[in-house]
Amino acid sequence: MNLIPWLILITVVILGTVGQLSLKYAFQAPKSSNLEQKSSKNLLLSPFFWIWFTSYVIVTILWLLVLRTIPLSQAFPALGLTFALVPLASNRFLGEKVVLSQWFGIAIIITGVILVVQK
Q1: How does pLDDT run across 68-101, given as a tens digit for each residue?
Q2: CA atoms of 114 and 106, how far apart (whole Å)
Q3: Rounded distance, CA 106 to CA 32, Å?
Q4: Cα end-to-end distance, the chain, whole Å
Q5: What tens digit of pLDDT does each residue of 8-24 get?
Q6: What is the pTM of this model?
Q7: Contact present, 12 and 63 (Cβ < 8 Å)
Q8: How far is 1 from 90, CA to CA, in rounded Å?
Q9: CB 82 within 8 A of CB 16
Q10: What is the C-alpha to C-alpha distance for residues 93 and 25, in angstroms, rounded to an integer?
Q11: How far does Cα 95 stand from its chain's mean position?
């Protein structure tokens, strides 16, 4: 088993998580009285929007590399780790709460991914 494709897949999951958090930051309402007019401009000028955009371009390229070496039946379920990492990162960096049911869901996702990616 070649370790490099799996490291690339982990990078895809992490960059996908970074992208989601960046997009959330980019869409947070600016402190302005005229939100309607400035929202599109603020979004396009936001560095977080460009972090999101760049991360998804890189994720797409890396995903194509992953698909060349890892079976889709293993690689695609591993992307589910993003569904576990986003709530954890949102809790840490955005101050969003993670409730008990979400913790159970995160544990189930991680367990499921481990079971599916095993050969």
Answers
A1: 999 999 999 999 999 999 999 999 999 999 999 9
A2: 12
A3: 36
A4: 10
A5: 999 999 999 999 999 99
A6: 0.86
A7: yes
A8: 33
A9: yes
A10: 10
A11: 17
Q: How far apart are CA 77 and CA 27, in angstroms?
A: 28
Q: Which residue has the tokens 């049911």?
A: 101
The single-letter DSSP state of residue 79 is T
CB burial of 16-30 (b: ≥16 within 10 Å; e: otherwise) equals bbbbbbbbbbbeeee
**Is the Cβ–Cβ distance between 74 and 116 less than 8 Å?**
yes
Tell me how far apart the alpha carbons of residues 13 and 29 are, in angstroms, rounded to a whole number: 27
Can you tell me the distance from the alpha carbon of 50 to that of 19, in angstroms, rounded to the nearest whole number?
9
